[in-house]
Structure to design on (336 residues):
């Protein structure tokens, strides 16, 4: 066995292929579930702040600790208000795939949004947009989030297309009233609800197979390198299958975590800030959401919260929270 006393399974799931870098910090959302018939936004942009411990009364059906107080890890996501800056209508082409037909923007946008590439106040033909609604497959909102409102130094806003529930006509009527306005997270999600978390993982750059896939280091007397695969395959014609661990990009991948429970929606996150602020973040200066469990990415990384694509069979209300604990600091916070 060499230096390893126990066997170790390989690292790195083969479900992701190719294992490439994400195109940017904001993830790409390919699916927006529309469970609700009432028009509403199906997603929201936030920023990861840090982790803490939450104590609450377990209310999950079938849980062995149901009815008792438990302590679990939780993640604080700062959610400043999002700007609804435009709308986009999608129609199905000959192959059945949705394609953009028209887009319109609000007549009056803040200067920091009006300077973005491809975004101009009042751009787009409203008449042509409404004419395309009868043959529309769906209508999406174009929202923007300003990191500076979350206390971060970045000035450039993040722009994302967010799905809207309901029929295309109802979605457009809903967005027409919100065009150019701010939307708070309390109008999209509530405490106790399950959400999907989409984000970009922490990047490690180009790494070898030992760190990327966890293979065993070869013995000391190996003739060539030790931190490599002993044989990548002996076959004719010569080729390497995708099951062989290879060096390459490790981290900074787009990932989705399903059914994260919202433990609290706080209109003022400053009460949740520990002494000195969260490490590598700052003092919370905007509303915040507490999610049960961990969230991908380092602090300050933008996170997209989405309606659950595969919700559980049961529904839960707002949890009964006891306290929040950050290291040795006890934070008494009442959830909204």
């Amino acid at each position: 066995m060499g230096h390893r006393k126990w066997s170790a399974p390989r690292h790195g799931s083969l479900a992701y292929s190719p294992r490439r870098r994400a195109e940017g910090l904001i993830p790409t959302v390919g699916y927006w579930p529309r469970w609700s018939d009432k028009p509403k936004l199906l997603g929201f942009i936030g920023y990861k702040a840090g982790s803490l411990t939450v104590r609450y009364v377990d209310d999950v059906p079938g849980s062995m600790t149901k009815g008792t107080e438990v302590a679990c890890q939780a993640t604080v996501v700062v959610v400043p208000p999002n700007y609804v800056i435009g709308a986009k209508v999608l129609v199905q082409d000959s192959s059945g795939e949705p394609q953009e037909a028209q887009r319109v923007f609000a007549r009056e946008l803040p200067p920091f949004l009006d300077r973005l590439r491809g975004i101009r106040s009042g751009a787009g033909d409203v008449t042509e947009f409404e004419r395309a609604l009868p043959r529309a497959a769906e209508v999406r909102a174009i929202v923007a989030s300003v990191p500076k409102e979350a206390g971060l130094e970045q000035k450039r806003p993040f722009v994302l297309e967010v799905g809207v529930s309901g029929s295309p006509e109802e979605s457009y009527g809903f967005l027409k009233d919100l065009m150019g306005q701010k939307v708070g997270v309390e109008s999209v999600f509530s405490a106790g609800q399950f959400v999907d978390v989409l984000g970009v993982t922490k990047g490690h750059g180009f790494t070898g197979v030992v760190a990327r896939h966890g293979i065993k280091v070869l013995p000391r007397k190996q003739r060539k390198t030790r931190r490599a695969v002993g044989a990548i395959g002996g076959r004719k014609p010569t080729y390497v299958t995708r099951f062989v661990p290879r060096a390459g990009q490790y981290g900074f991948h787009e990932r989705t975590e399903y059914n994260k429970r919202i433990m609290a929606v706080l209109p003022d996150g400053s009460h949740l800030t520990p002494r000195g602020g969260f490490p590598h973040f700052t003092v919370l200066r905007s509303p915040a959401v507490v999610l049960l469990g961990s969230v991908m990415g380092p602090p300050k990384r933008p996170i997209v919260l989405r309606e659950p694509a595969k919700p559980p069979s049961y529904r839960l209300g707002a949890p009964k929270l006891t306290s929040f604990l950050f290291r040795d600091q006890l934070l008494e916070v009442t959830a909204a």
